[in-house]
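Action item from last week, closing it out:
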Amino acid sequence: MPNDDLCYLSATELGGRIAAGEVSAADATDAYLGRIAELDGNYASYITVTAERAREDARRADAEIASGQRRGPLHGVPVAVKDQFNTAGIVTTNGSTILGENVPDADATVMERLRAAGTVLLGKLNMSEYASGDAFRHPYGRPRNPWDTGRNPGTSSSGSGAATAAFLCATSLGEDTGGSIRGPAAFCGLVGIRPTFGRVSRHGVFGASWSMDTVGPISRTVTDCAHTLAAIAGYDPRDGQTWDVPVPDYAAGLDGNISGLKVGLVSERVHTDANDPEVRDAVIAAAGVLSGLGAEVREVSLPLIVHSSEISYGIISSDAAMLNWDIISTERLRELDHNNQVRLLMGSILPAKIYQKAARLRELLRRQILAALDEVDVLVMPASSVPATPIPSSAGLGTKADVVAGFKGRRGFTAPFNLANLPALSINCGFTGSGLPIGLQIAGRAFDESTLFRAAYAYEQATDWGERRPPGV
């Protein structure tokens, strides 16, 4: 099978062929490493390519599978992860030169679990410095969107979006504090899920906000996303905020049947001037597809959702300043990107009363969302008000109007569900006239990722958006 054809298989298909002996993990790994060497100069999606480790992982996977010890659907499948997760013996930078020589001596829990699933680690993916969605300078290269290299692939899991969309890994991991999985998924035409807070361990993961950070997958198909989440989810005694609840076989429930599913279309996030008209129309059309598949679609109102961006930003900025005080309080602050310096300094002087007000508003919004989910099974709205944005030409913000406009962008559409600590998924629901992907966001009840996957899978099977490839890949 030609190398590129191996890479164009879904992670699930590739894992099945490796299990059947039709291809080897070693061949698949070499195919991906070849594509990375040939194409990643266009996208800067990787910080570190772990070719030697990948080939070792592949040889082990092939030997285990040949001896009847298959570990699961991702055994032998080449994956990549955001450089926010500690990897034993491999440089872990958190996107910054400050950590350019940081080599952990132990894996993050999610890395342990990927290894236990038998995956092949291709490398560590580029990201916004210190997981800041506002970073301008990227010391390891500016990540670029495969659908249009003049545009952003999403932040802060930028490389996870770019590499997965460009077929430079079979599936990937990102981290979502305020939308850093769902944003890249939406901008790059992928499937990404922010799981319920506490579903996946954060042990060994660099933090951005202690009360919102969540690790999750970015994949090309719903089934791949389901398998990837199943591999990393579950209780971890080293993370006191994980929940000791069963992890379902997410993929087993993907049958395309959503008859009777109650879907709430969030009116304040669909009928708003903040939306690009093409985004609005695509999301409304997607709701129509769900209705045609037997779902009961009706509009719901969440009045406080229009302030979610401001609430989220106030909390995350303060949390980030606390987590990174060792940098703020030293001369090392000057080594950070300009936008990151401003964000951390602002967070460090944010008055306590502002933080407290944001925390109270967060709880009120959470109650509104939970009340709506008592009436419907899932909530649907855009993952971003706009498609992928142009790469900025300068750091900083020009005017107060620029700041206000920023609150109406992607952040205000992803923030409601990180504030509520609920699962939310983005799936491609179409393209703009200029060929940019549009993200449909599906959110649900705590620990009910299965229903999100079920709705997304039914939509995916009823449409052909996922069959398109970015130009030049």
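Closing note: The chain has one domain: 3-467.
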